[in-house]
């Protein structure tokens, strides 16, 4: 019996090693593609393209993903060294805070984009007169402040612990110097808050906005035909984000149920969490690929420069015929450019 148990334990260790190797490979892939891809998006939207409300949104989204992927080598080293953290307590806090910052900043930028598109469809004249780069920059700043605030607990509670064999663990120490029950309460509070504010609330707002948009587009076929490409791009970005992060949030909620934990339960978590984390990390390198492959026909990608591809993906459109036939626009509104109103 002892021999069989040792064989079973050896198989589990081998499986875990394989999962960790897979995680390292995924992290490296996300780092290379994420830094290069998001770096190109930042360069193009920040320095090469004409400033629009759309480019402000996508620039901030790329910055969030770039910051996250730039710190991935720390996680790669940590995992490759058998979860030994050699970078000190401060970087342990910073690394986890950056990960949380990426989650909240990305999801709330997507919320802002969804609300912006909804407003542009439902109230096009108001959007034409009030949407501008300055206000978009202020909104983006507000998103970053909110994301940093929601990420603060990880900077406070993240800690390091050095064992007798000089192996250092970077972990979330919710107990600090208090009792275990207080630490468990803090852990549950942070996890539930992250789930509600990092998934439930943003997802509800985004779905509501696109329900309104789809309803309005069905009523106006001309507007729908002229808005199909940018609509599909942002819909793909939002869908990809939630598909990548939902499994992670689910595993975190399962982890909260500590009362029913068993060896099997812990084994499922030990396998499920690394896999869902790897899947979530890939999201930060997928957006630039979506911009390229959905910004134009695939056959034309080879023939166009990166700048032209991203300009095609990010350009803002409005249905002129919709404005003429369905709205009475004042002479002041007619004099303004409609290129800054998009769906």
UniProtKB/TrEMBL annotation:
GO molecular function, one term: G protein-coupled receptor activity
Subcellular location: Membrane
InterPro entries assigned to the protein according to its UniProt record, in alphabetical order: Formyl_rcpt-rel, GPCR_Rhodpsn, GPCR_Rhodpsn_7TM
Record keyword Nucleus present: no
Keyword terms: Chemotaxis, Disulfide bond, G-protein coupled receptor, Membrane, Receptor, Transducer, Transmembrane, Transmembrane helix
Bilayer disposition of the protein: Multi-pass membrane protein
GO BP terms, alphabetized: chemotaxis; inflammatory response; phospholipase C-activating G protein-coupled receptor signaling pathway; positive regulation of cytosolic calcium ion concentration
Superkingdom as given in the UniProt entry: Eukaryota
Residue ranges of every copy of the G-protein coupled receptors family 1 profile domain listed in the record: 37-291
Cellular component terms per the entry's GO annotation: plasma membrane
Transmembrane feature ranges: 19-44, 56-81, 101-126, 138-157, 189-213, 233-251, 271-294
Keyword NADP: no
Principal location listed in the UniProt entry: membrane
Stored Pfam families: 7tm_1 (PF00001)
Family: Belongs to the chemokine-like receptor (CMKLR) family.
Descriptive protein name: Formyl peptide receptor 1
């Amino acid at each position: 019996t002892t021999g069989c148990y040792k064989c079973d334990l050896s198989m589990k260790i081998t499986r875990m090693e394989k999962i960790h190797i897979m995680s390292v490979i995924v992290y490296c892939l996300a780092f290379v593609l994420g830094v290069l891809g998001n770096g190109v998006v930042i360069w193009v939207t920040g320095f090469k393209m004409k400033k629009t409300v759309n480019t402000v949104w996508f620039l901030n989204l790329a910055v969030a993903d770039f910051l996250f992927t730039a710190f991935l080598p720390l996680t790669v080293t940590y995992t490759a060294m058998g979860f030994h953290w050699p970078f000190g307590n401060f970087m342990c806090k910073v690394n986890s805070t950056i990960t949380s910052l990426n989650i909240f900043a990305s999801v709330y930028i997507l919320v802002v984009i969804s609300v912006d598109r909804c407003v542009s469809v439902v109230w096009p004249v108001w959007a034409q007169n009030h949407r501008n780069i300055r206000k978009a920059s202020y909104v983006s700043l507000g998103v970053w402040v909110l994301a940093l605030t929601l990420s603060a607990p990880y900077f406070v509670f993240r800690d390091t612990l050095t064992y007798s064999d000089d192996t250092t663990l970077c972990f979330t120490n919710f107990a600090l110097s208090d009792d275990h029950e207080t630490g468990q309460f803090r852990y549950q509070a942070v996890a539930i808050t992250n789930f509600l504010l990092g998934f439930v609330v943003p997802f509800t707002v985004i779905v509501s906005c696109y329900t309104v948009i789809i309803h309005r587009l069905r009523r106006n076929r001309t507007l729908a035909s002229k808005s199909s490409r940018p609509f599909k791009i942002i819909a793909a970005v939002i869908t990809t984000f939630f598909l990548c992060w939902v499994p992670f949030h689910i595993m975190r909620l399962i982890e909260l149920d500590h009362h029913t934990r068993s060896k099997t339960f812990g084994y499922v978590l030990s396998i499920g969490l690394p896999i869902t984390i790897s899947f979530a990390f890939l999201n930060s390198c997928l957006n630039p690929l979506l911009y390229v492959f959905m910004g134009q026909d695939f056959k034309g990608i080879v023939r166009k420069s990166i700048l032209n591809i991203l300009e095609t993906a990010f350009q803002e459109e409005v249905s002129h015929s919709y404005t003429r036939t369905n709205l009475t626009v004042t002479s002041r509104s007619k004099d303004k450019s409609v290129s800054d109103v998009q769906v």
